[in-house]
Amino acid sequence: MNIYKELTEQLSNLPDYSSKPAVALETTIVSHGMPYPANVETAIALEHEITAQGAIPVTIGIVKGQIKIGMTPDEIDFFAKHHEEIVKVSRNNLGYVLANKLSGATTVAATMLIANLANIKVFATGGIGGVHREGNETFDISADLLEFSKSEVNVVCAGPKAILDLPLTLEYLETNGVPLIGYKTDYLPMFYSAKSNYRLEQRADSVEDLANIINSYRALNLKQGCLVVNPIPDEDSLDPTQIEIVIEKALELAKANNIKGKAVTPYLLDYLNHHTGGKALSANISLVKNNARLAGKLAVSLLSE
Ligand code: PSU
Ligand code: MN
């Protein structure tokens, strides 16, 4: 069968989660975001956090050219152990990975795109991609930011990753019309740290409040996703000035080693995970679990009358 027919058939048989409280999970965080075995342990723990809220976890990835909407623990384990064989997939290389029957870990952008095909409305991750520092010169702007205008999937994260330029990321989100909603906060959380100095305009103080705001965007039929920012729990929040010192060192090394394109974010996260005495990694695990809990509650609430 030719690939067009094969994929069209695969796509027409995708599961439909429109009337179910599903929460999508990505796999780039597994294969390119955390070291083994913390990556697989976290991936499985996230599924449990979501189930505990009465929602359905759906981990997304590409296994040998097959779009997986719901991966098995063995598949997740393979992604966790063999990152060198797993392509980091975004919107721009998804077709290539499928055509060549490769395996791919989906980023926020690709996970949103695939979740949307299966009518999954909620997605939990750690931190989304954004405008990189010096992005005005390098043009390094994550495709994650553009995906909100293309796929109607609401993403719960702990803010843009601290390695990024936060004010530029905020401007870019605003330009693209992405609703940015703080969960119990007036300030943008910055991934490892619960609070920044950047004020937010939209705030929800309960899950019902959040579902209400999201449903109001949905009623407008804009076919776009909202970005919910959920601060890392206070007890795990890192001191921004301390983590910033390590971030600056990581950025300096990335530049010196000419790290470019999609390798930048994994390089920086890897450096942080290895040079903070485990603090960056444990903060990342804590925040993503916290996001999975909120996403699970949100998925349930969005379906209630
Ligand atoms: N959140 C995490 N760890 C990660 C990521 C998010 O806690 O590794 C991944 C997501 O898949 C996100 C990607 O889409 O980092 C951003 O990569 P880039 O900057 O190349 O778009
Ligand atoms: Mn990039």
TrEMBL record:
<protein>
    <recommendedName>
        <fullName>Pseudouridine-5'-phosphate glycosidase</fullName>
        <ecNumber>4.2.1.70</ecNumber>
    </recommendedName>
</protein>
<dbReference type="Pfam" id="PF04227">
    <property type="entry name" value="Indigoidine_A"/>
</dbReference>
<comment type="subunit">
    <text>Homotrimer.</text>
</comment>
<feature type="active site" description="Proton donor">
    <location>
        <position position="26"/>
    </location>
</feature>
<keyword id="KW-0456">Lyase</keyword>
<keyword id="KW-0326">Glycosidase</keyword>
<dbReference type="GO" id="GO:0004730">
    <property type="term" value="F:pseudouridylate synthase activity"/>
</dbReference>
<dbReference type="GO" id="GO:0005737">
    <property type="term" value="C:cytoplasm"/>
</dbReference>
<dbReference type="GO" id="GO:0016798">
    <property type="term" value="F:hydrolase activity, acting on glycosyl bonds"/>
</dbReference>
<dbReference type="InterPro" id="IPR007342">
    <property type="entry name" value="PsuG"/>
</dbReference>
<feature type="binding site">
    <location>
        <position position="88"/>
    </location>
    <ligand>
        <name>substrate</name>
    </ligand>
</feature>
<comment type="function">
    <text>Catalyzes the reversible cleavage of pseudouridine 5'-phosphate (PsiMP) to ribose 5-phosphate and uracil. Functions biologically in the cleavage direction, as part of a pseudouridine degradation pathway.</text>
</comment>
<keyword id="KW-0464">Manganese</keyword>
<keyword id="KW-0479">Metal-binding</keyword>
<feature type="binding site">
    <location>
        <position position="140"/>
    </location>
    <ligand>
        <name>Mn(2+)</name>
    </ligand>
</feature>
<feature type="binding site">
    <location>
        <begin position="142"/>
        <end position="144"/>
    </location>
    <ligand>
        <name>substrate</name>
    </ligand>
</feature>
<keyword id="KW-0378">Hydrolase</keyword>
<comment type="similarity">
    <text>Belongs to the pseudouridine-5'-phosphate glycosidase family.</text>
</comment>
<dbReference type="GO" id="GO:0046872">
    <property type="term" value="F:metal ion binding"/>
</dbReference>
<feature type="active site" description="Nucleophile">
    <location>
        <position position="161"/>
    </location>
</feature>
<dbReference type="InterPro" id="IPR022830">
    <property type="entry name" value="Indigdn_synthA-like"/>
</dbReference>
<dbReference type="GO" id="GO:0046113">
    <property type="term" value="P:nucleobase catabolic process"/>
</dbReference>
<feature type="binding site">
    <location>
        <position position="108"/>
    </location>
    <ligand>
        <name>substrate</name>
    </ligand>
</feature>
